[in-house]
């Protein structure tokens, strides 16, 4: 299982002191849907200006601290099977921005590749990472996208 940030920090992982916040140019808003539910939309004008896709909507009741963590995290797919996590961490630290936490997963043997969730120290690294979607890593083009949203995971605290 992949622990959430709080579990990782409580288990002795590195931590940066203070409450994290999205940069001032990034805003969140709640949108009511026709079925009576609500979603939380995060607007980043910098990502829009770069032609990057908008962040996926989150359930309207998502804790704002969790929103900030989600918006600093990307999914990276197409990693070579058996890749060293430290090597992936070093790669992103060198070419994108400071990584706070890396969660690696290889999945079942039937999958042709491994994947990871890369949580950056600052949200401003996310557009850089997304602009580098397809960057070569050990002969494979990496697939870098915003962290996919799974409502059940958010609501369960995972």
TrEMBL record:
- Identify the SUPFAM superfamilies for this entry: RNA-binding domain, RBD
Instruction: Enumerate the transmembrane spans.
Output: none
- Superkingdom classification of source: Eukaryota
Q: Which residues form the RRM domain?
A: 72-143
Q: Quote the PROSITE patterns the UniProt record gives.
A: RRM
State the UniProt keywords alphabetically: RNA-binding
Q: Which residues, by range, are in coiled-coil regions? A: none
Q: Name one GO molecular function term.
A: RNA binding
Return the Gene3D superfamilies for the record: 3.30.70.330
Q: What is the name of the protein in this document?
A: RRM domain-containing protein
Instruction: Give the originating organism.
Output: Strongylus vulgaris
């Amino acid at each position: 299982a992949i622990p959430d940030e709080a579990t990782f920090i409580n288990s002795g992982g590195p931590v940066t002191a203070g409450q994290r916040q999205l940069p001032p140019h990034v805003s969140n808003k709640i949108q009511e849907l026709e079925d009576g539910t609500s979603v939380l939309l995060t607007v980043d004008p910098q990502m829009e200006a770069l032609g990057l896709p908008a962040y996926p909507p989150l359930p309207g009741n998502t804790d704002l601290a969790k929103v900030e963590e989600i918006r600093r995290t990307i999914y990276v797919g197409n990693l070579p099977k058996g890749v060293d996590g430290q090597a992936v961490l070093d790669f992103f630290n060198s070419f994108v921005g400071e990584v706070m936490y890396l969660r690696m997963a290889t999945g079942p043997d039937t999958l042709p590749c491994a994947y990871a969730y890369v949580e950056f120290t600052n949200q401003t690294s996310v557009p850089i990472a997304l602009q580098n979607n397809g960057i070569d890593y050990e002969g494979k083009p990496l697939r870098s996208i915003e962290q996919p949203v799974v409502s059940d995971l958010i609501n369960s605290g995972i």
